[in-house]
Each structure stands twice: as C-alpha cells, then as structure tokens.
Amino acid sequence: MASTISDASLALSAKIVIAGAFGVGKTTFVAAISEIPVASTEALMPVAAAPADDVSFARGKTTTTVAMDFGRIAVDDGLTLYLFGTPGQDRFWFLWDDLARGALAAIVLVDTRNLAASWPAIAYFERRGDIPFTVVVNLFDGQLTHELAEVRDALDLSPGIPLTTADARDRRDVREALRALIRHALNLLPSH
C-alpha cells in the first residue's frame, strides 16, 4: 500500500534573526510584518541607562528591547518565517548566541545616522561565518540619505554581502527585505 504525503506535511519553517544596534528599528521591522501580535520584551529605558544608551539620533525613544522580539509570517503556503529581533545594546549581547542558534539567516538593520554602531552586529555574523546575512538600511522618514555604495564602503562590507534598503514601518518593504534574504541564503546552499 503506497502512502501519500500531504502538502501540509511538506510545510517548512525557518528562524530568521533581525539584528542591529540600539534604536535602529528592529522591533518596528518585526511588528510591521508579523501575522501574530509581536511578543516583545520592550521596557522603559531606566534613567540609569542614559549614559550608556545614546538616544541623540533616535528622538523620542523611551523603550528598549531587553531580551528579544518574536513574530511570525507565512511567506507562502509552504514557508513560515519565525522572526527573532535581538536587543541592540552591548550589555544584552550575551543573548545573541542563543537567539542565533538554529537560524537560517539574519538581517543586520542599519541606520545611516549612526553607522559606526552597526559594526559590532556585522562583525558578529562575519565572525560566526555559519549564518548568511544581508545588511538593510532602514529608511527613516522614508529617505535614503546616503548612496548604497557609500554605505557599503563606510561599513567595509564584502561584495558577497547583499545591501538593500527598507522602511521598517512598511510591510511591503519588510517583505521584500525578507525575500532578498531568503534568496541570498538559498543561493549559498551547496548544490547537489
């Protein structure tokens, strides 16, 4: 008797990490695309953290992620992405290894108003070497303030790391960034 496999049993899921510096828009990115209410560990920023958390470029920021953000999106009938947003401050980086464990790929979200803060996140994934990643410039106010070639040079990105843009508030932009990430990760898989 031959058995058949239903389409539902062929559904795939993948873990995606959304990383970057403090205040770059990771929580907003996850919330813009998630089909479920985002499980967020946003907390009010304590006054004691003020010297460590530079909010000069993030006007009005009063909360911060202290563990992770979690969301889910079905890309199509056969693929569901589980999104894990990292906390941005270095004092929470001890969580990154756990959040990255088992990830198919990652997006490093960057803010051109504070590019230097992006280097540690990029270096983290370069050092690991086992998680394909793309770099996405968050279009704050919907504006690209620097040409992508300038951003690539400033971040010293290798040519093999895709660099794109997205407004983290815009569902379509976030969806396109995730699609580009999946394409990049799949292109790096060994062919059989």
Provide structural commentary:
The chain has a seven-stranded mixed sheet, with helices on both faces. It has helices at residues 26-33, 96-100, 119-128, 148-155, 171-187, and strands at 12-20, 39-44, 63-76, 79-85, 105-110, 133-138, 163-166. The relative contact order is 0.19. It has one domain (10-187): 3-Layer(aba) Sandwich (Rossmann fold). It is built from five helices and seven strands. The chain is α/β, with parallel strands linked by helices and 192 residues long. The radius of gyration is 17 Å and the shape is globular. Mean pLDDT is 83; it is low at 1-6 and 47-51.
What is the N-to-C succession of helices and strands? EHEEEHEHEHEH
CATH architecture: 3-Layer(aba) Sandwich
Outline: globular
Q: What's the number of structural domains?
A: 1
Number of strands: 7
Strand neighbour order, sheet with most strands: 2-3-4-1-5-6-7
Keywords: GTP-binding, Hydrolase, Nucleotide-binding
InterPro entries: Gliding_Motility_GTPase (IPR052705), Gpn (IPR004130), P-loop_NTPase (IPR027417)
GO molecular function: GTP binding; hydrolase activity
Pfam families: ATP_bind_1
Please tag this protein with its features.
single chain; 192 residues; Rossmann fold; seven-stranded mixed sheet; 5 helices; globular
